[in-house]
């Protein structure tokens, strides 16, 4: 349900990132009808009518349903939504996957987590850790012919932090960023106000992919980068088409080949309907689908000519964050009781037909710094929950069977954005509600229109909040739990938690280069988050992909985004 | 429907405007067009008001929850969208833009609203027209065959109609996809904008209307067949089928045209589901997303365009009445 997470750093993604309320790019209120976008898809009725027959013929030929499978390219049917392709503005999972093909980054993160050269051939970090100097590769050009130089890098970084960009994630990735300086045409320096260890990894993500400075203004709808594929067309709510960049020669060091990509074309089809997406794969109309409906996983595993791929997503797991800043959850015993009152194992298994694993820590096992020691630390234990509630003074019972204290019912509020929650997650949430009721805790699970939901979240008028965040770095914990990472400064500590111990571990880990010390600090932080009842981890979100047997060399990058540069189509 | 008022008998009875049928018709059409403009303006105003009454701060919904926490971004967006101005000024700006034909700029899609509508209008119009035509194509023979006779056939037809009206559109769509696209590979599953991509979505949409149309047509025909004119036609030796087709059907079609305005609305709603299941572009889906995201210019733009379409269709239907029922030709607008 990463969808519900208002603060999910776009990196987010999760199984499903159709966040409808995603930030728009720059919104020129009275902006002129940009020539770019208007020209992009001028498809008047007449033109379409004229093309109708041709389209019908084409469809009929591709038709026997194998439109996606020929040598021309690969078709990826996704459950996601796309509203802006500017990587510095948007943050959803699908947009990142698309953008990775269009934009290259200064550096790359290898599968082992080590940083490797990419558009920057080498770099130096100043002794005080506050200045990063990058030497750019020569001979790189953007799709519009503009050469890559220091000014282009600076323009991209300035664009990321410009309030007009309304960046929801990219700007936060830059940490204590102070600015970018052009040293000479092929040298650029990024300045920080204090050391920030995650910077290089941040720069390797698609969110900080380098854009052609000429195209920045229109990059929402006409993205121009230097990547292995270039943008061709976008039909709203329907498809996005990219084609091979024939002059590409600056692939990542981990790539399996050199030169242009192997696929001539890459088509992203937006298919929100589970059944239609799954059917498109089984009938050969798509070569790859995401968000395989969990009910279809078993069938997919045994289907011939198809593969099922499941990869745990790094970052935070799908979890319910507890609002410890107001009663009744300000009492640690009530929080701990709620953790034990819910049979998470059983719920996750039955709702997702055993596809997702139950989570024990707020970090996903795929995240560096994950600690496995929390396993079974908060088992389903109604007796322990009852005892904790007794100790907390909630000893009375009202006519509906809920616990009371001083005549007040033990009740918590859980609003969700109706448009943002998937049906399966809705069922899971109702399961949690039913289990809590057995323990005498009322959960007011209410489905709200996006306006009311945003208002509740901003006003802090909620006790439970469900979300997950895709992030390669355990520093995501700092963004969620450090006392200075409140939403008004771009952080995600939405309940304004102030825990000096967590602050100490998380802040020192972010500034430290000592791997062992970082590991220890993150393990301590995860343990405290669970033991203090700040969160109830539910399940480990994973990529659930259905892949045609024809698709070869499909890989994930370090953040588990799909890589299409090496992919080719063979025989099924 | 071709209309040739000049060819009609020119016999204005008492109370009818002088000047002949042609001039009367022109005046009638002019008045109706003026009325249509008022209706469109009213729809736009109601939409403008309703969107501002919806819960929550529209700018915060628009920028998304993450960005809504950043005062700088919110202030920037509020200024760009004009929401920092008084409501009266916003409304005046809105009317001024409308008068100049400027439908505005979509915050979410980063595109001018006319371009958004141009991209999505034809897929929806072609879908709804095809769906409407298919529904009539099935409903007319069904009604003609079953009206007023053979109770068993009528019962069977009624059952079918009930089923088609009751099944949710997305389920019909998935069933059609499963057989014709996934299994038989006859039609593409998603994203089709050509003819072959239109077939399954149009059938899905049509099935929801067939039952309704058949029932209305059959009721109308049954009533018409009991009228004296049917009896006199039969008395003149006209065959039963001819009586049904030439006389009764004509009466029943009036009822269908009466609900055609309603049908346009229903089709636009149904299009949201169909467009989602089949991954089609279209106004229905764009409108649904725009409402969720408080993308006001897109919502008002689509309201204005569909309002204009709606009033034009109603106007066309009323013209049609005058063709079907000569008595109305003399009636004032």
TrEMBL record, chain A:
<dbReference type="GO" id="GO:1904680">
    <property type="term" value="F:peptide transmembrane transporter activity"/>
</dbReference>
<dbReference type="InterPro" id="IPR030678">
    <property type="entry name" value="Peptide/Ni-bd"/>
</dbReference>
<keyword id="KW-0732">Signal</keyword>
<comment type="similarity">
    <text>Belongs to the bacterial solute-binding protein 5 family.</text>
</comment>
<feature type="region of interest" description="Disordered">
    <location>
        <begin position="1"/>
        <end position="43"/>
    </location>
</feature>
<dbReference type="GO" id="GO:0015833">
    <property type="term" value="P:peptide transport"/>
</dbReference>
<dbReference type="InterPro" id="IPR000914">
    <property type="entry name" value="SBP_5_dom"/>
</dbReference>
<protein>
    <submittedName>
        <fullName>Glutathione-binding protein GsiB</fullName>
    </submittedName>
</protein>
<dbReference type="GO" id="GO:0042597">
    <property type="term" value="C:periplasmic space"/>
</dbReference>
<feature type="compositionally biased region" description="Low complexity">
    <location>
        <begin position="29"/>
        <end position="43"/>
    </location>
</feature>
<keyword id="KW-0813">Transport</keyword>
<dbReference type="Pfam" id="PF00496">
    <property type="entry name" value="SBP_bac_5"/>
</dbReference>
<dbReference type="GO" id="GO:0043190">
    <property type="term" value="C:ATP-binding cassette (ABC) transporter complex"/>
</dbReference>
<dbReference type="InterPro" id="IPR039424">
    <property type="entry name" value="SBP_5"/>
</dbReference>
<dbReference type="GO" id="GO:0030313">
    <property type="term" value="C:cell envelope"/>
</dbReference>
<feature type="domain" description="Solute-binding protein family 5">
    <location>
        <begin position="115"/>
        <end position="481"/>
    </location>
</feature>
Automatic annotation (TrEMBL), chain B:
<keyword id="KW-1133">Transmembrane helix</keyword>
<dbReference type="GO" id="GO:0071916">
    <property type="term" value="F:dipeptide transmembrane transporter activity"/>
</dbReference>
<feature type="transmembrane region" description="Helical">
    <location>
        <begin position="33"/>
        <end position="54"/>
    </location>
</feature>
<feature type="transmembrane region" description="Helical">
    <location>
        <begin position="121"/>
        <end position="147"/>
    </location>
</feature>
<dbReference type="InterPro" id="IPR045621">
    <property type="entry name" value="BPD_transp_1_N"/>
</dbReference>
<feature type="transmembrane region" description="Helical">
    <location>
        <begin position="298"/>
        <end position="321"/>
    </location>
</feature>
<feature type="transmembrane region" description="Helical">
    <location>
        <begin position="252"/>
        <end position="278"/>
    </location>
</feature>
<feature type="region of interest" description="Disordered">
    <location>
        <begin position="1"/>
        <end position="20"/>
    </location>
</feature>
<dbReference type="GO" id="GO:0005886">
    <property type="term" value="C:plasma membrane"/>
</dbReference>
<feature type="transmembrane region" description="Helical">
    <location>
        <begin position="194"/>
        <end position="213"/>
    </location>
</feature>
<feature type="transmembrane region" description="Helical">
    <location>
        <begin position="159"/>
        <end position="182"/>
    </location>
</feature>
<keyword id="KW-0813">Transport</keyword>
<keyword id="KW-0812">Transmembrane</keyword>
<dbReference type="InterPro" id="IPR000515">
    <property type="entry name" value="MetI-like"/>
</dbReference>
<keyword id="KW-0472">Membrane</keyword>
<feature type="domain" description="ABC transmembrane type-1">
    <location>
        <begin position="121"/>
        <end position="321"/>
    </location>
</feature>
<dbReference type="Pfam" id="PF19300">
    <property type="entry name" value="BPD_transp_1_N"/>
</dbReference>
<protein>
    <submittedName>
        <fullName>Nickel transport system permease protein NikB</fullName>
    </submittedName>
</protein>
<keyword id="KW-1003">Cell membrane</keyword>
<comment type="similarity">
    <text>Belongs to the binding-protein-dependent transport system permease family.</text>
</comment>
<dbReference type="InterPro" id="IPR035906">
    <property type="entry name" value="MetI-like_sf"/>
</dbReference>
<dbReference type="Pfam" id="PF00528">
    <property type="entry name" value="BPD_transp_1"/>
</dbReference>
């Amino acid at each position: 349900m990463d969808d519900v997470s208002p603060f999910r750093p776009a990196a987010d993604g999760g199984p499903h990132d159709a966040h409808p309320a995603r930030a728009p790019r720059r919104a020129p209120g009275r902006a002129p009808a940009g020539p770019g976008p208007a020209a992009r898809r001028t498809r008047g009725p007449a033109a379409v009518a004229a093309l109708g027959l041709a389209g019908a013929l084409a469809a009929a030929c591709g038709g026997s349903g194998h439109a996606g499978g020929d040598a021309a390219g690969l078709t990826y049917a996704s459950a996601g939504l796309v509203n802006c392709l500017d990587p510095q503005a948007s943050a959803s999972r699908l947009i990142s996957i698309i953008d990775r093909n269009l934009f290259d980054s200064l550096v790359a993160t290898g599968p082992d987590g080590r940083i490797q050269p990419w558009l920057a051939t080498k770099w130096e970090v100043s002794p005080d850790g506050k200045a990063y100097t990058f030497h750019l590769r020569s001979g790189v050009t953007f799709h519009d012919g503009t050469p890559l130089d220091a000014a282009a890098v600076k323009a991209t970084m300035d664009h990321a932090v410009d309030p007009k960009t309304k960046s929801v994630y990219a700007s936060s990735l830059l940490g204590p960023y102070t600015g970018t300086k052009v040293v000479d045409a092929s040298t650029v320096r990024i300045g920080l106000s204090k050391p920030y260890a995650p910077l290089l990894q941040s720069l390797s993500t698609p969110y900080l992919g380098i854009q052609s400075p000429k195209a920045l203004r229109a990059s929402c709808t006409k993205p121009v980068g230097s990547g292995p594929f270039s943008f061709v067309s976008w039909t709203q709510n329907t498809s996005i088409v990219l084609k091979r960049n024939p002059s590409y020669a600056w692939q990542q060091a981990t790539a399996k080949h050199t030169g242009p990509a192997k696929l001539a074309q890459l088509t992203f089809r937006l298919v929100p309907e589970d059944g239609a997406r799954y059917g498109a794969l089984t009938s050969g109309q798509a070569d790859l689908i995401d968000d395989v409906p969990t009910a279809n996983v078993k069938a997919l595993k045994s289907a011939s000519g198809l593969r099922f791929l499941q990869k745990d997503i790094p970052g935070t797991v799908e979890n319910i964050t507890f609002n410890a800043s107001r009663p009744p959850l300000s009492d640690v015993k009530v929080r701990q009781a709620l953790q034990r009152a819910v049979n998470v194992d059983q719920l996750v298994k039955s709702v997702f037909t055993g596809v997702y694993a139950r989570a024990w820590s707020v970090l996903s096992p795929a995240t560096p710094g994950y600690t496995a020691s929390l396993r079974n630390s908060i088992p389903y234990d109604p007796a322990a929950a009852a005892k904790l509630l007794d100790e907390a003074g909630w000893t009375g019972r009202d006519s509906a069977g809920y616990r009371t204290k001083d005549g007040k019912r033990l009740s918590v509020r859980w609003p969700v954005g109706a448009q943002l929650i998937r049906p399966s997650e809705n069922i899971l949430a109702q399961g949690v509600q039913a289990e809590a009721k057995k323990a005498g805790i009322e959960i007011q699970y209410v489905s709200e229109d996006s306006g009311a939901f945003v208002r509740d979240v901003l006003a802090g008028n909620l006790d439970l909040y469900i979300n997950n965040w895709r992030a390669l770095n355990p520093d995501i914990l700092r963004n969620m739990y450090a006392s200075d990472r409140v939403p008004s400064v771009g952080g995600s500590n939405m309940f304004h938690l102030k825990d000096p111990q967590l602050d100490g571990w998380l802040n020192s880990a972010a500034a430290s280069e000592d791997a062992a010390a970082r590991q220890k600090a993150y393990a301590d932080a995860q343990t405290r988050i669970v033991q203090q009842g700040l969160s109830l981890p539910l399940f480990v979100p994973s990529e659930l992909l259905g892949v045609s047997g024809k698709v070869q060399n499909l890989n994930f990058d370090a953040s588990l985004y799909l890589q299409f540069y090496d992919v080719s189509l063979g025989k099924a | 429907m071709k209309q040739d008022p000049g060819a009609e008998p020119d016999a204005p009875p008492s109370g009818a405007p002088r000047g002949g049928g042609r001039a009367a018709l022109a005046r009638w059409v002019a008045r109706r067009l003026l009325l249509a403009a008022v209706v469109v303006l009213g729809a736009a105003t109601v939409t403008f008001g309703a969107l501002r009454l919806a819960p929550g701060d529209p700018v915060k919904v628009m920028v998304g929850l993450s960005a809504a926490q950043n005062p700088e971004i919110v202030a920037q967006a509020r200024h760009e969208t004009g929401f920092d101005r008084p409501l009266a000024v916003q409304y005046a700006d809105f009317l001024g833009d409308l008068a100049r034909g400027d439908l505005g700029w979509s915050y979410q899609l980063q595109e001018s609203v006319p371009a958004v509508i141009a991209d999505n209008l034809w897929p929806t119009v072609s879908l709804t027209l095809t769906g409407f035509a298919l529904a009539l194509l099935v409903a007319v023979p069904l009604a003609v065959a079953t009206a007023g006779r053979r109770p068993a056939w009528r019962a069977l037809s009624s059952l079918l109609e009930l089923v088609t009206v009751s099944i949710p559109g997305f389920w019909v769509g998935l069933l059609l996809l499963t057989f014709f696209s996934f299994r038989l590979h006859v039609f593409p599953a998603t994203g089709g904008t050509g003819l072959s991509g239109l077939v399954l979505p149009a059938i899905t949409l049509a099935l929801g209307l067939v039952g309704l149309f058949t029932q209305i047509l059959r009721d109308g025909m049954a009533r018409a067949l009991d009228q004296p004119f049917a009896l006199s036609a039969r008395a003149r030796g006209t065959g039963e089928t001819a009586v049904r087709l030439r006389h009764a059907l004509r009466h029943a079609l009036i009822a269908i045209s009466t609900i055609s305005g309603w049908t346009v609305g229903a089709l636009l709603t149904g299009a949201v589901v169909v467009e989602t299941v089949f991954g089609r572009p279209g106004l229905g889906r764009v409108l649904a997303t725009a409402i969720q995201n408080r993308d006001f210019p897109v919502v008002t733009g689509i309201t204005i365009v569909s309002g204009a379409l709606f009033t034009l269709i109603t106007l066309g239907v009323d013209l049609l009445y005058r063709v079907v029922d000569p008595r109305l030709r003399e009636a004032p607008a």
